């Protein structure tokens, strides 16, 4: 993408001005999505990727930006300068995102890029355009412990002024459990990709594994992409994608998004990036209630999540 083609997100969002608000959710094929996404879903569904395109899929707040940065660095042989060429949403467009004009949609950005492209989505498996599977695109999916994912999503919904008002913590837990949040049920999401991982050659990763041993998981991604980088470059990538490094990196910390959308005075986009932070939010009663519901909804799968109870 040339300098002339690079889109200034900050200016575009400022121009959208008063059109920006907390947009309501509209159900698409049983999944609640922000209204602008729902209104344009036919265009999203019709998107045809190139076979060389790479899809990075997650439930919201499950390590998406982290994975995007790892992949970009791998594809650029650990060249930090190359990965400073543009903010994350420009380097790796958000497939389904639509906002008031002149803010560019994910599809607008993708049209300006030459494959191979790195594409982000939060869509559950059944809503991902069929072209990704028909063209056998490589797909990386990252799943995160439900309780930590819930906490992170709650704080994100507080600061993201375009998503529905989350309300108080104790009621948000129930919204999450019932799937009454953007992109729907966490349970259905993680299970849908897990069920298809072997048939579709999906690399299914866990946030907790990435935190426990980032080098091991970076190497897993490298092998999946068919790359072979030196130990020195891998070490550099691990360092550049640490939470501290990314939080300080203006190309990955979403500081390109102005306060009228991401109000970081409420909560920063990159908040903690920890495993087990749920213990600072759930009361014992809430945890017991959540665990009971979790066991019921996950009884039909053997996804090896850790640090839940």
Defining key terms:
disordered N terminus; globular; two-stranded antiparallel ribbon; 4-stranded parallel β-sheet; alpha/beta; Rossmann fold; Sulfotransferase; P-loop_NTPase; 9% strand; 309 residues; 15 helices; 41% helix
Detailed description of the structure:
Helices cover 41% and strands 9% of the residues. It is of the alpha/beta class and 309 residues long. Helix 12 crosses helix 13.
What can be said about this structure in brief?
By secondary structure, the protein is of the alpha/beta class.
Within the CATH hierarchy, at the fold level, what is the topology? Rossmann fold
Structural class: alpha/beta
Give the proportion of residues in helices: 40-55%
From the spread of the alpha carbons, the general shape counts as: globular
GO cellular component, one term: cytoplasm
GO molecular function: sulfotransferase activity
Keywords: Catecholamine metabolism, Cytoplasm, Transferase
InterPro entries: P-loop_NTPase, Sulfotransferase_dom
